[in-house]
Amino acid sequence: MHFQQLTYFVAVAETRHFTRAAEAVHVSQPSLSQQIRALEAELGADLFSRARGNITLTDAGEALLPLARRILADAETARHEVQELVSLRRGRVRLGATPSLCTGLLPDLLRAFHDRHPGVRLLLEEGGSHDLVRQLARGALDLALVVLPLPAASPALTTVELLREDLVVVSAATEPPPGRDGSIRIADLEGAPLVMFRHGYNLRELTLAACRAEGFEPTFTVEGGEMDAVLGFVRAGLGVAVVPSMVAARAGHDLRRTALAGSGLRRTIALAHRSDVDPPRAARELQRMLLEHRPVPG
Amino acid sequence: MHFQQLTYFVAVAETRHFTRAAEAVHVSQPSLSQQIRALEAELGADLFSRARGNITLTDAGEALLPLARRILADAETARHEVQELVSLRRGRVRLGATPSLCTGLLPDLLRAFHDRHPGVRLLLEEGGSHDLVRQLARGALDLALVVLPLPAASPALTTVELLREDLVVVSAATEPPPGRDGSIRIADLEGAPLVMFRHGYNLRELTLAACRAEGFEPTFTVEGGEMDAVLGFVRAGLGVAVVPSMVAARAGHDLRRTALAGSGLRRTIALAHRSDVDPPRAARELQRMLLEHRPVPG
DNA sequence: TGATCTCCATAGGCAGCACCTATCAGTGAG
DNA sequence: CTCACTGATAGGTGCTGCCTATGGAGATCA
């Protein structure tokens, strides 16, 4: 049984005429006759009674017709469905990102993506880099925005470096500015009241490591919050915090932003996906847009 | 898109393995790979991500899989349905017959047919020969048992003579026997009280024509009934009636049967169907059984 | 690290078949 | 009777699906 044969069969059933059916399906009449014969032979029953000028379906033909129509419709649907995925009129991207990236980088990007491909669903998984890497490996995510270096031994993940972001110190605008001359050194943080993120934040590890490299343990007034909470505590004058510059830029005028002097402190943000399978079409498109619109790199 | 390709696709989706899928569908692995490639090319999207030892469906593959399964299932159903019709495990016979044949010939035949092909529905249309011929021509009947000669100019009907049946006179067992020496002539019916069928019965025309050929008009005590009613009136002693011998034989012991002397009166029963289309398989089978089990012809 | 295995892709050859054009055969109308 | 119409048949051709043989890229293990 071939799709062609079913197409021809339906055409004859609808026109009740071999020659006109052949024209309708753009094939010569002998070819169509032959294929109908072949289908009849395979099924072991005549499908049409070929009365001169009065072609009618036999009972076997009557039984076949609705199924043939449905099969052809399903095939058409299949083509259409796949086409919609390919053309990004439909689809899904499962994107993971660390909390700081969710507030900093993503909103504009996802907005732009959604405007361009409104039919594609965006599923965002907010989590620590460790979790995200595991989810990627399990196939639960298509793409993740992570902070390098990756925590775990990455199981066959490909990472594309996206941008290097300076970390800055934020403090309440109502408090005297920390440091000197509008800039601050890591060493100046010794003894300073710090508002620190919860365990699991990559920023926490990064800041701690920097302080320890300078030979001191930082002092925390409050610790344990998420990004928004930390900024709130800083606004309230509880202390200063080390945050990505992109986050600081969005934090509003009641927060002062002080650059870290010298080599400063940076973090590298990368896009990760499994190496062994290509991400779906929609995820590749998101990746492409991310790389294209990437904020000033370096 | 070919059924083969969908079969291969489903096999790979189920085994997650090209080589094993190829074994499952009894084809060489390169052929299977090639067909999957062809399908992917036609649809314009990869269906599998071919990670070493970890074949998975892409989103396009996921979209296609349920449709592919349904298409294959429908194709299987189509084969099965047609096969059931062919093997007479299912089907339909639309059979027409005159009322006298419905009571005389059909019950045993239909019983035998149903016993042999219990899945075939029997649709019986009881009517006059004229109606039956029209229904046949319209395609509303597959087969009809009619009395020859056919009334209307038969529009391309094929008739197969089935049997010639004597007509006999039935009378109430409680009444004195008509005629002489256990037989009766048509002429003896002159002035005799006759119970006559309604208009449209072929038997009515036959009997009337026979009487007129003898030069008299028969006398009716009651007229207008169907077969059962006529026999009932005869039983009640209202008169005698001319009926087919087959009907008379089944009428019970309270009815006397008297043969018509001389050339007698006969009618020819035939099986009719359209000449331009073959009847459905089930109808042909019924026709075959009818000819095979036909009661003593002639 | 190199040998081996596994597994999918590629290459080349063959055969089947779907398609074509040309023609035949049966039917109905003028 | 002749012609037009319609479906079936015949013969030839090119596409393609199948095969076997082989390549090449991970895994696995000594």
UniProtKB/TrEMBL annotation, chains A, B:
Residues 1-58 form the HTH lysR-type domain. The keyword DNA-binding applies. PROSITE patterns: HTH_LYSR. Keywords: DNA-binding, Transcription, Transcription regulation. InterPro entries: LysR_HTH_N, LysR_subst-bd, WH-like_DNA-bd_sf, WH_DNA-bd_sf. The keyword Transcription regulation applies. SUPFAM superfamilies: Periplasmic binding protein-like II (SSF53850), Winged helix' DNA-binding domain (SSF46785). It comes from the Bacteria. Pfam families: HTH_1 (PF00126), LysR_substrate (PF03466). Belongs to the LysR transcriptional regulatory family. This is LysR family transcriptional regulator. It comes from Streptomyces sindenensis. The lineage of its organism: Bacteria, Bacillati, Actinomycetota, Actinomycetes, Kitasatosporales.
